[in-house]
Specification:
Layout lengths: L4 E2 L2 E2 L45 E11 L5 E4 L6 E5 L3 E6 L2 E11 L5 E7 L2 E10 L2 E8 L15 E6 L5 E6 L6 E2 L7 E7 L5 E7 L11 E6 L6 E5 L1 E5 L5 E8 L1 E8 L6 E5 L1 E6 L5 E6 L3 E6 L5 E3 L7 E2 L4 E2 L5 E7 L5 E7 L7 E5 L7 E11 L4 E8 L2 E10 L7 E2 L7 E8 L5 E8 L15
Antiparallel strand pairs: 1-2, 3-4, 3-5, 3-11, 5-6, 6-7, 7-8, 8-9, 9-10, 10-11, 12-13, 12-36, 14-15, 15-16, 16-17, 18-19, 19-20, 20-21, 22-23, 23-24, 24-25, 26-28, 27-28, 28-29, 29-30, 31-32, 32-33, 33-34, 35-36
C-alpha cells in the first residue's frame, strides 16, 4: 500500500512501513500565491445533513505509524500544516496543500465504532473510525492482520487523531438581539471583514485556511447569500466593500505591498486606485471610496472625477483597518493611534478634519476598558456605532454599542452569545441586522445566558 510520493520519497510500501516519517519532517513547502479563484480540486466538500459527517477539512493533531522494525513514528509538529481532506470516497493526507497520501475508503456506520476500509493500488487496510463533534479518530491495520479494535498507537499500523480547524465564522442577528443565526463554517476558512450588500441579500467577506498553512495575506474574497448558500470565491483579496448600487467592489490585494482596487462583482473591469494603500470602504450614498495610505492618514477617492482628498493632518501615527462610513455618508469612523501611544476610535468629516472631528471611544471610554478592536460599524438608528471592546473584568472581546451624539452610555450589543468572542462587525444598510465574525470560547457561559439562540 502506498501513500504516494512526497518529494520523491516513498513513504510506505505494501503496508510494510519500511520508511519513516522523515519526509514529513522536512521544512514546510512555500506555496506560491494563487492568481485566480481556487481550483475545483481545492474547493471544500462540506457535509450536508444526510451525508457522511466526516467530510471536509481536518487538521492532523497526531499521525502515528509503525515501521517494519516496529518502531513508532509520530507527527505532532503544530508549526507545519498537516491536514486531511476527506471527500465522498477519498481521504487525502497533506502538508499544507501538498498531498503525500491519497487513499480510497469505504465507511460503514451501522456499528459502534464505525468500520473503515482503505485501499490503493498497493493493497488494503482495515480499521475503525470514531467521530465525536469536532474530533475524529481513525485506526488502521494491514489487511493481512485483524481489523483494528481500538485506537492505541502500539496496537495499530496507523492511527490518526484529527480535529476540525478552529476558525472565525459569521453570526447574523437582528438589531434587537433576536434571531441569532450561524452561517456555515465553509470548511476550515477563517472569515473576516463581513460587508452587507445594500439590498440586504448578500454578504461579502474575506477568508483564508490556516489548516493549509495560509494566513491573512493568502486571503480570498467571497460572497454568499445571507443564509450562507450560493458561496462564490472571487479570487485573491481582502476587506471587500460594495458600491452603492451593489454592482462593484473595492478591496485590497497584496503584491509585496498593499494595493486598493475596484472591480465588477463578476470580476470584470479591475481598476487600481492606489498603491501602498489599505482598508478601502465605499461610501453608502456616493461614488467615493475612503482608504488609508502610508497607514497614518485617511483619503477619499472620487471614482467619477478621479480626484483624491486628504482628511487628517498629523493627528495619528497609525490608522487601523476596519473603518466605516456613517449611513448618510457625512462621517467616517476609524481607530487611530496617537504619537504618545494612546489609541482611540474617532469620527472625521468626509470633507476633512477641519469640517468635523470627534473622539468617540477614548482610551478611558469605560471604567475598566482594556482595549478596543480595530474595526467598527456605523448603523442602527443612524447614531449607533458598534465596536469590539475588551474589559478588564471580561477579557473576552465583545461587541458594544456607542452613541455618536454621546447622549447614551456604551451598552453591550443585545443577544450576542456569551460563549463567543467577537471580531469584525457590519450593520446592514437598513440598520435592522448585524453580521459579526466570532469564535466559540471554551469554558464560557452558554449562548442562552444572553438571550441568544444558536441555530
Amino acid at each position: 500500500m502506498s501513500f504516494g510520493r512526497f518529494r520523491g520519497i516513498r513513504l510506505c510500501g505494501n503496508w510494510a512501513w519500511s520508511l519513516t516519517l522523515v519526509a514529513l519532517l522536512i521544512p514546510a513547502i512555500v506555496i506560491a500565491a494563487e492568481p485566480k479563484a481556487r481550483s475545483q480540486a481545492e474547493k471544500e466538500e462540506p457535509a450536508g445533513p444526510n451525508e457522511k459527517p466526516i467530510l471536509g477539512l481536518w487538521q492532523i493533531d497526531t499521525l502515528s505509524l509503525s515501521s517494519g522494525e516496529n518502531i513508532r513514528e509520530r507527527v505532532e509538529d503544530q508549526k507545519k500544516a498537516y491536514n486531511a481532506q476527506i471527500n465522498s470516497d477519498v481521504l487525502m493526507l497533506r502538508v499544507g496543500k501538498t498531498v503525500f497520501g491519497e487513499l480510497k475508503y469505504d465507511l460503514h456506520t451501522n456499528s459502534r465504532p464505525w468500520t473503515i476500509d482503505v485501499s490503493s493500488k498497493d493493497g488494503k487496510m482495515l480499521g475503525i473510525c470514531e467521530h465525536d463533534g469536532n474530533q475524529l479518530k481513525i485506526a488502521l491495520n494491514d489487511a493481512d492482520k485483524s481489523r483494528s479494535s481500538d485506537f492505541r498507537n502500539d496496537k495499530n499500523d496507523l492511527v490518526l487523531l484529527l480535529s476540525r480547524p478552529r476558525t472565525m465564522s459569521i453570526l447574523v442577528l437582528d438589531a434587537d438581539g433576536r434571531n441569532l443565526r450561524h452561517l456555515p463554517n465553509f470548511d476550515g476558512t477563517t472569515i473576516g471583514s463581513p460587508e452587507w450588500s445594500h439590498d440586504g441579500q448578500r454578504l461579502a467577506f474575506d477568508g483564508w485556511r490556516p489548516a493549509l498553512g495560509e494566513n491573512n495575506r493568502d486571503s480570498h474574497i467571497f460572497i454568499c447569500n445571507v443564509d450562507g448558500s450560493g458561496l462564490k470565491d472571487l479570487g485573491p483579496g481582502c476587506m471587500p466593500s460594495w458600491s452603492p448600487d451593489d454592482k462593484r467592489l473595492t478591496y485590497v490585494q497584496y503584491f509585496g505591498q498593499d494595493h486598493v482596487w475596484i472591480r465588477d462583482v463578476d470580476g470584470a473591469n479591475p481598476e487600481l486606485i492606489c498603491s501602498d494603500a489599505w482598508c478601502s470602504q465605499w461610501s453608502p450614498v456616493r461614488n467615493e471610496i475612503a482608504y488609508t495610505k502610508f497607514r497614518d492618514n485617511l483619503y477619499v477617492y472620487n471614482a467619477d472625477t478621479k480626484q483624491t482628498r486628504e482628511l487628517l493632518h498629523g493627528q495619528y501615527v497609525a490608522v487601523h483597518w476596519g473603518m466605516s462610513w456613517s449611513p448618510d455618508g457625512k462621517w467616517i469612523c476609524f481607530r487611530g493611534r496617537r504619537p504618545d501611544g494612546r489609541a482611540e476610535t474617532v469620527a472625521v468629516h468626509a470633507e476633512g478634519d477641519e469640517k468635523g472631528f470627534k473622539v468617540l471611544i477614548p482610551t478611558d471610554a469605560m471604567p475598566d476598558i482594556k482595549a478596543a478592536g480595530m474595526t467598527s460599524s456605523w448603523g442602527g438608528n443612524g447614531n449607533q456605532i458598534v465596536a469590539t471592546i475588551i474589559r478588564k473584568s471580561q477579557p473576552v472581546p465583545k461587541p458594544y454599542i456607542f452613541d455618536f451624539t454621546g447622549k447614551a452610555p456604551p451598552m453591550p450589543f443585545p443577544g450576542f452569545p456569551a460563549d463567543w468572542l467577537s471580531g469584525d462587525i457590519a450593520w446592514s444598510s437598513d440598520g435592522k441586522r448585524i453580521a459579526i465574525t466570532g469564535q466559540r470560547v471554551e469554558g464560557e457561559k452558554s449562548a442562552a445566558a444572553t438571550g441568544g439562540s444558536a441555530s
